[in-house]
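Training component of the fellowship. As part of building independent skills, the fellow (R.M.) carried out the full modelling exercise for a liganded target. The chosen ligand was 2-phosphoglycolic acid. The inputs are recorded below so that the supervisory panel can assess the work.
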Amino acid sequence: MRKKIVAGNWKMNTNLQDGIYLASSINNKLLAETGIDEIGVVIAPPFTHLIAISKVINNDRICLTAQNCATESKGAYTGEVSAEMLKSVGVKAVIIGHSERREYYKECSEVLNKKVKQVLANDMKTIFCCGEKLDQRKAENHFEVIKNQLEEVVFKLSENEFDKIIIAYEPIWAIGTGVTASSDQAQEMHAYIRKLIAENFNNTIAENTTILYGGSCKPSNSVELFAKADVDGGLIGGASLKANDFLEIIKSY
Ligand code: PGA
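Fellow's submitted model of the complex:
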């Protein structure tokens, strides 16, 4: 059966000292809890914090994740960080296709394809994000938008490759806005994504794929969201920066 996961996307927040403190707090609180061992916990701090944080967390319990990686494997790409570099510091997964990278850094599907290939080549997991803008939802194009985003990248992979993909559905109008998709809206889209996976691959793969919801997920709404059949956890931004809130969200299962 597919894994339930709660992932924290720290984005460009915390300096190193605050980041180490946050990661240690999450780690200590998590290890003190009982009964939530089956929930996968992911944290994605900024690049600069990864090595130090890998030393203060239980890496068997918390999956250290990066927020991005380069399209190329090595060479003259000033300022880039390769998937192999991330792997070498203990990173186990990479977030690819976040709407902020699509929007602000103009990452198109061609770029995302290359990044996913780099992550897979280094035997790490990909958290692949998809999501529609508000005007696309208002125009009732949201299903089409999500289908295209998946078809252009992760549905091009082989079955074995897709096995390493976690999908995160993040409606852009809900990210950082305080407006959450209703649990019914989330369920509707998650069920649709699972149906697409079944059509593109098969039912077993669809049933085994973890599909996370992201967008203003917080302790006050995570219980209702996670209760939905096709919502397998969350990709949490703002609320992952407070250890107590993040733990509350994990415990909502
Ligand atoms: P948010 O961000 O929880 O702050 O809305 C979610 C995300 O962008 O992953």
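The panel noted the following from the submitted structure. The longest helix spans residues 183-200. The CA atoms of residues 20 and 55 lie 9 Å apart.
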